[in-house]
Amino acid sequence: MAELQAVEVTVHFSPDGEITPLSFRWNGRLYRVDAAGRRWQAEDGWHILVLTTRGQGFEMVFVPSDRRWYLGQPAPGPMAF
């Protein structure tokens, strides 16, 4: 993944502990998440692909060790969910 930026994220925790991003603030703008797709755990944290209501796809990463969310640059084209 390309360079990551720390972002403020609003999330939903389901009763079974699944985390779903609802919105995030990036570059001074609020982005609402329309859909969350593939999820996986890697050495650097939990990765989630999201699609915003503006149609932009992002890869979000939650790093439990520092309790922060990070965002990659927007995907240049359609993302596979």
**Gap between N and C termini:** 16 Å
User: In total, how many beta strands?
Assistant: 6
CA radius of gyration is 12 Å
Main beta sheet, described? Answer: 6 strands, antiparallel, barrel
Low-confidence stretches: none
Strand fraction: over 45%
Count of DSSP-assigned helices:
0
Bin the helical content: under 10%
- The neighbouring-strand order within the major sheet is 1-2-3-4-5-6
Mean pLDDT equals 89
H/E topology pattern: EEEEEE
- Which structural class do the helices and strands define? mainly beta
Give the overall shape, derived from the CA principal axes: globular
As an assembly, this protein is: single chain
Structural commentary:
Strands 1-2-3-4-5-6 form a six-stranded antiparallel beta barrel. By secondary structure, the protein is mainly β. The radius of gyration is 12 Å and the shape is globular. It starts with a strand and ends in a 10-residue tail after the last strand. β4 (45-52) and β5 (57-63) form a beta hairpin. The chain has a domain at 5-57. The chain has no helices and six strands.
Task: Give short descriptive properties of this protein.
single chain, 81 residues, mainly beta, six-stranded antiparallel beta barrel, 6 strands, 0% helix, globular
In short:
The chain is mainly β and 81 residues long. The chain has no helices and six strands.
How do the strands and helices of this protein lay out in sequence?
Elements lengths: L4 E9 L5 E8 L2 E14 L2 E8 L4 E7 L4 E4 L10
Antiparallel strand pairs: 1-2, 1-6, 2-3, 3-4, 4-5, 5-6
